[in-house]
Design brief:
With 307 residues, this protein is an alpha/beta fold. It folds into two domains: 13-157, Nitrogenase molybdenum iron protein domain (Rossmann fold, 3-Layer(aba) Sandwich), CATH 3.40.50; 164-305, Rossmann fold, CATH 3.40.50. The chain is 31% helix and 15% strand. The protein has eleven helices and 15 strands. The protein has helices at residues 41-46, 81-87, 101-109, 125-129, 131-139, 142-161, 188-195, 234-238, 242-250, 269-273, 278-289, and strands at 3-4, 7-8, 33-35, 53-57, 73-76, 91-94, 113-116, 167-171, 173-174, 180-181, 198-200, 209-210, 224-226, 254-257, 304-305. The chain has a five-stranded parallel beta sheet, covered by helices on one side. The chain has a five-stranded mixed beta sheet with strand order 11-8-13-14-15.
């Protein structure tokens, strides 16, 4: 447990690193690591251990590829066991999911250590960031990882204190089957938006999937819409569905997405960095929502207004 500043993180919601429900024993720090989730990449960069990565899941979507990462094999979404075995990793780190579990079990049978990390289930952005401490312990850089976490913690609380205004925000996005997918109040993204000065105007609609027409009741309250999609223009949104066309025609709110840094096939740096750097994400949101006296939308790293 780490305690610092205004935020105390307990292990009540910790999703343990497990080898498919069995403890993982590493007798020494691994020198060759296969990484299935790009959300942890930032930790490897900051600890200067990216040279240990020999394979990355869906590497083509990684925005920033260092010289060392260029030598890592693209493992795809669900790699073959043969591909993993060919790169000879000491350990395989990735998120746990029903789709990946059969693959993990096959790797374990071949003697490959598998560490599953469900960072996306953490309920606070700082809890997610704290996972760097465990990665640091695994890789032999514990002290550096702890120091970095404490720095992020301090930055986050400082940025949070700078917020002086509230903005009405619309959270969630339309689905392909005509519904609206709401953002869970238990999610780390919901909490970071609140810390940035945003309040969800449809918070009274508690269902995860809702009839989008219910949103029209709250249109006058919306100042910003923060879709978790890579929209590049209002025209693109208008053409997505009759609902989005009607929504944008009825309202004058701003739309902002994390598309400032993307590669040519749609890989956004946001997913490679922001999950492990909630302080930078909070700073971005405060700037784009203009909730601090020092806010400047030009200072953002990822978020930009959709025009």
């Amino acid at each position: 447990m780490l305690k610092s500043g205004e935020y105390l993180y307990t292990n009540e919601s910790r999703r343990a690193f497990t080898e498919c429900n069995k403890a993982v024993v590493l007798k020494k720090n691994p020198k060759r690591i296969a990484l299935m989730s790009s959300t942890l990449l930032e930790v490897f960069y900051e600890l200067n251990i990216d040279h240990k990565i020999v394979g990355v899941g869906d590497k083509k979507y990684v925005y920033r590829q260092s010289q060392n990462l260029k030598n890592a094999k693209d493992l795809g979404t669900i790699p073959s066991v043969e591909k993993i075995f060919s790169i000879k990793p000491d350990v395989l780190i990735g998120y746990d999911s029903p789709a990946l579990k059969p693959f993990y079990l096959k790797c374990i049978k071949l003697g490959i250590k598998v560490i599953a990390v469900n960072d996306y289930l953490e309920r606070h952005p700082l809890a997610r960031a704290e996972l760097r401490v465990l990665i640091g312990a695994i890789a032999g850089s514990l002290d550096t990882a702890v120091a970095k976490y404490e720095q992020i913690l301090g930055n986050y609380n400082s940025y949070k204190k700078s917020v002086t205004q509230k903005r009405g925000v619309l959270l969630g996005s339309p689905t392909s089957d005509g519904l609206w997918k709401n953002v869970s109040v238990e999610s780390d993204f919901y909490k970071i938006v609140l810390d940035a000065g945003g309040f969800n105007v449809i918070s009274s609609l508690e269902d995860q999937l809702i009839n989008p027409e219910k949103i029209f009741k709250y249109v006058e309250m919306i100042e910003y819409w923060l879709p978790q999609k890579t929209y590049l223009s209002r025209k693109q949104i208008m053409e997505e569905s009759n609902f989005t066309k009607l929504l944008l025609s009825r309202a004058s709110f701003e739309i902002t997405t994390y598309t400032k840094k993307m590669n040519n096939i749609g890989g956004a740096e946001y997913w490679d960095v922001a999950m492990m750097r909630p302080d930078l994400l909070l700073f971005d949101l405060i700037n784009v929502l203009e909730t601090s006296k020092d806010s400047d939308p030009e200072k953002t790293r990822w978020y930009q207004l959709v025009k």
